[in-house]
Design goal:
With 380 residues, this protein is mostly beta strands. Helix content is 5%, strand content 36%. The chain has a five-stranded mixed beta barrel. Strands 9-10-11-13-12 form a five-stranded mixed barrel. A five-stranded mixed β-barrel has the order 14-15-16-18-17.
């Protein structure tokens, strides 16, 4: 973040500000993975008695017969440790849970029943939610939950199944190559003109993009797009240096398509849920790198207990005239199981076709490439 910059976020009944120094992780502290030692009980092996070489003939019973004890059916016969180990299921690969969340991450590497063939460049990896985001050749963004996450810039194909919150569950991605840039299309959900950073959002993803920095020797560059604007952006993969945190994507060309139709998609980490004001505060980006939090006003019908601190969540929301957000629907995004939990959906959280389209306008381009060239970049 740039020293001295200030972000003012206005929500229903509240004003939030954050003094930003440098782009840093969210105030939600990253919790190191906890090692869990699982003790596997070794079944007792009954001693084996060698048979008598010549068993004596049976002796006819005399007197009252000895009582016969009923068979113990409570537990099956014990097995040798080797057999028990062979039958033990493989442990699923789990992303460590975040603070206050014991269900985050992914759950297994089994291939779901495929419903769609998804393909594109990986433009975002979210280890907090156990997901990655694909950018199709036309820039459409699709968030996919998987047990094995590809790397930023990988070009992959994956079979996916639609989940309850509008994201996908994917099988193991099939890597087809590498990309150095891609086209992305989404709605700006947060923007900081001083820092020249903004978040592009779609269902299941809110990722940071760095606008070109100002050059003192040149005229001031255009400001980043404002929140609520539909954009098409050519981005280059430019992760920050080792040990630093910030946007992984650098803007190369930008086309603004005008105000987006509702709902706007938001994905972030819950900071707090206030029962008195009915405000849920989430990070401006889904990894909490910006250090900025957005207030989202939720209806009285929403169960605030679902918004546990540290949990990745998705919102469908309208942007109010004062720039604040009002939720229409919400769902969990903490791993494949959370995203698939239809019972956790609140309000209207069904992704409507064309909901990320602009309300009007021919678009305003920044950069040297046209919109058509922008869409073609991921095909190379």
């Amino acid at each position: 973040m740039v020293a001295g910059s200030t972000v003012v976020l206005v929500g229903t009944g509240m004003i939030m500000g954050a003094a930003l120094g440098s782009i840093a992780p969210s105030s939600i502290a990253d919790t190191p993975p906890q090692q869990v030692n699982v003790a596997l009980a070794t079944p007792a092996v009954a001693p084996l008695t060698p048979p008598s070489p010549e068993p004596p003939p049976p002796t006819p019973p005399t007197g009252d017969p000895a009582p016969v004890e009923p068979a113990d059916t409570a537990e099956p016969a014990s097995e040798p440790p080797e057999a028990a180990a062979a039958q033990a299921p493989e442990a699923a690969e789990i992303t460590p849970a975040e603070p206050g969340d014991d269900t985050a991450g992914t759950d297994g590497d089994e291939e779901p029943a495929p419903t769609e063939q998804l393909a594109g460049a990986v433009v975002h990896v979210n280890v907090r939610a156990g997901s990655f985001t694909l950018a199709a050749p036309d820039g459409e963004l699709t968030a996919v939950h998987a047990a094995r996450l590809p790397e930023l810039g990988d070009e992959v194909r994956v079979k996916g199944q639609l989940l309850g919150n509008g994201t996908y569950a994917g099988a193991r991605p099939d890597k087809r190559g590498r990309a150095t840039e891609a086209a992305v299309r989404g709605v700006v959900s947060w923007s900081d003109p001083a820092l020249r950073v903004y978040a592009v959002s779609a269902r299941g993803v809110s990722m940071l993009v760095a606008a070109p920095p100002a050059d003192p020797a040149l005229p001031p560059p255009p400001p980043p797009p404002a929140a609520g604007v539909l954009v098409e952006v050519t981005v280059a993969f430019a992760p920050p240096p080792a040990g630093q945190k910030g946007p992984d994507l650098a803007q190369r060309a930008l086309t603004e398509r005008g105000p987006a139709k509702d709902p706007v998609e938001l994905t972030g980490l819950v900071q707090a849920a206030d029962e008195a004001t009915r405000i849920v505060t989430i990070s401006a980006d889904d990894l909490g790198l910006s250090g900025v939090f957005l207030p989202v006003a939720v209806p009285d019908t929403f169960d605030l207990a679902a918004f546990r601190p540290g949990r990745p969540v998705t919102f469908s929301a309208t942007i109010e005239p004062d720039g604040s957000f009002r939720a229409l629907g919400a769902g969990r995004d903490d791993g494949r199981k959370g995203a698939a939990d239809a019972d956790s959906l609140q309000g209207t959280h069904i992704k409507a076709p064309g909901s990320d389209e602009a309300a009007g306008g021919s678009g305003q381009e920044q950069g040297s490439e046209s919109s058509e060239n922008t869409k073609a970049t991921s095909r190379r």
